[in-house]
Amino acid sequence: MNKKDFIQKFASRTDAPSQAAAQRSVEAFIDIIVDTVASGQEVRLGGLGVFERAYRQGREARNPNTGDKISVPGQWTFRFRASKEAKDAVNK
Description:
- With 92 residues, this protein is α+β, with helices and mostly antiparallel strands.
- Helix content is 42%, strand content 29%.
- The chain contains three helices and five strands; from the N terminus they run ααβββββα.
- The strands form two sheets. The protein has a three-stranded antiparallel beta sheet. Strands 3-4 form a two-stranded antiparallel sheet.
């Protein structure tokens, strides 16, 4: 399912007045999550999971073509941990 499909399904389930209104709602939802996590806070959604920011340590890696060592710097990344309810729904 891509974003367009998600918006269509969201519009039909919420009785949104239009597809455009559903799209604005979905985009606002995504923007709020991304902005909150980018500021260092976590977003906990019951029944879905936790969106959070995590730091990935720098490391040494190898170029697969040449075998040369390269240094990969540390960076912040976006992490999602599914709730027990979401895991159970997937494993039915």
